[in-house]
Amino acid sequence: MGVLALRNLLLVVLLAVTGCVSLSQMTMPTAEELADCVSYSVDLEALKSGREIAIIDCTDCHRTYWPAEFPPQAWSGILDKMGRRASLSEIEIREVKLYFATVSEFSRLQQASPETDSSE
Amino acid sequence: MLISWLFRGACCLTLMIAATTPMVAQDGNERIVERLEQLEQALDLSPASQTPLLSWTEGPRDLPSPFTFGGYGEVHGNFTEGSGNDEIDIHRFVFYMGYQFEDWIQLHSETEIEHAFVSEGDGELSIEQLHFDFLTGNTFNIRAGRMLTPVGITNLKHEPPSFNGVERPSFDKYILPTTWSSDGIGLFGKLMSDLKYQIYLVGGLDGEGFSSKNGIRGGRIKERPSLNEPAITGRFDFFPFVRLGNPAAQTLRLGLSGYGGGLDNGNHGTNPGVESSIWLASADFEYSVHNVDLRGAVAHEQISGALELADGVASDIFGFYLEMALHILPDSMKIGRFSESDLVLFARYDDVDTQFEVPAGVVKNEAGTRDEVTLGFTWSLTRQVVVKGDIQLRDDANPGDLPTLFNFGLGWEF
Q: Chain B contacts of A51, Cβ < 8 Å?
């Protein structure tokens, strides 16, 4: 059993090392990175707080859901429900909504125009 | 219908404009503002409208209902090498209902049916969670009722799309036995922005339910736990890199949890009369980077007065597991009905020893020392529905290998 198990584990490790899969959705950019792309007065602290909530509070009961996994409009309803289940305050729900929707929208825009460097 | 067409229109307009106009400096910024304004309009569809995205600080949100409903479930097909023990099992069906009395008073509940039918000695219908959360601020919130014992990973995160493998890890059956609920009261919150905690005073375990092979699993009291010898339990979760901009490390979570108390507790307040106690310490971690997920946990349990308990109960129990998972479905294949799909290959090693150390004069039960390699896949049809399959290669301290298990499962959450 030991030899077979080791062989199978090695196969999985090789897949991990050599797999070159484009998975651009799996990211949580910082608030500063998002703020660099806009000139209006976005609340940087709210985006920062939203990102921290996304990483810390939104994984209490389930895996990490990346903002780009759902369209921006979907996050409002999702986070209304999930925010309650995570016992988030009203302000925290607003902040994490802002973060998820903003990142989701940027992700879709960047995927639609991949040659553009939006940080310039 | 109108909402559907407005949504489609907003998306088409977004894609058209994004595809035809380069995002350069000032022009790009203006367009992003325009897109976000359209996003606001797309969100602001219902009569009881929510606060627009960009002006989220203005005024309270109008929530459509104080109720929140949800649930999860699993159906398994289990096949054992060389035996006639193959079966299909509606393993779990769990219903969640939450109610928000006020912004700061929330009720959370989960009711569970296991194995489809409750009969003598099999099947289960139980309250898995039923607690109030009183939100006082960021640091000291109060939780009272029946909550999930805050140890390990899977006990807190056990919806089918949240873990790999058809069955829960053996570590989470025999070392930190899920689902493990405790009744009591305590505090939870954040001590710092990257450090969370939970700590509760709860009804304890029934030491008479321990066994040499299954460890502390049978000590959970699911009906009316005694308060004769309460226990204290809690955990810390630390996110060391959350405030950094390094995407490679941002999701790392380190956890430390514990449980301790007397074991002279029974159901309906009838106590077994044993002089015994348990102290448990566990550490765990989760880390996701790009398309790789890593998680693992280790736990040590020390049982004093083990000789007073059932024959062969250990004085020390130890176990750990380590898992790596790889997301392999490329974005180019996530189209149409499979736009939310994902495919994960995983490998997990469980080392479970419910006979790590036994009292002097006790003969070890070799079946309590076992390890397991699980290789499998999790295919997420959508974010909420998963198809799973795995093979489990098992061994214990007895001569010869244990039969290999082949498992298939359908799981969901909503």
A: 242
Closest partner CB to B36 (pick from A52, A105, A113): A105
Chain B positions touching A31 (Cβ under 8 A) are: none
Q: Which of A45, A47, A73 to mutate to test the interface with B (most CBs of B within 10 A)?
A: A73
Interface of A with B in 8-37 (CB under 8 A): 8-9, 12-13, 15-16, 19, 21-30, 32-33, 37
Higher local confidence (pLDDT), A111 or B46: A111
B63 touches B99 (CB < 8 A): no
- Distance between CA B306 and CA B316 in Å, rounded? 9
Residue B344 binned pLDDT confidence (cut-offs 50, 70, 90): very high
Task: List the single residue in A16, A25, A76 with the smallest CB-CB distance to B326.
Answer: A16
- Mean pLDDT computed over every residue of chain B: 86
Contacts of A90 in chain B (CB under 8 A): 60-61, 103
Q: Is the pLDDT of residue B388 over 50?
A: yes
List B107's β-bridge partners, or say none: B99, B132
Distance CA B396, CA B53 (A): 57
Output B44 or B278, whichever has higher pLDDT: B278
**Letter for the amino acid at B100?**
Q
Please say whether the beta carbons of B143 and B105 come within 8 A.
no
The pair of structure tokens assigned to B191 is 């001590």
Q: b/e map of B139-165 (b: 16 or more CB within 10 Å)?
A: eebebebbbbbbbbbbbbbbbbbbbbb
Cβ–Cβ < 8 Å for B169, B154: yes
How many CA within 13 A on the CB side of residue B397?
A: 13
Q: Find the angle CA(B149)-CA(B152)-CA(B157) to the nearest 5 degrees.
A: 80
* Mean pLDDT in residue range B276-287: 97
State the complex-level ipTM: 0.72
pLDDT band at B400 (very low <50, low <70, confident <90, very high): confident
Cβ–Cβ < 8 Å for B219, B263: yes
- For chain A, give the percent of residues with pLDDT over 90: 12
Residue A85 has its nearest CB partner, among B11, B24, B98, at: B98
- Nearest Cα neighbor of B243 from B284, B195, B289 is B195
d(CA B76, CA B80): 13
pLDDT at A3 over 90: no
Convert the pLDDT of each residue in B347-371 to its tens digit. 999 999 999 999 999 999 999 999 9
- SS3 state at B39: helix
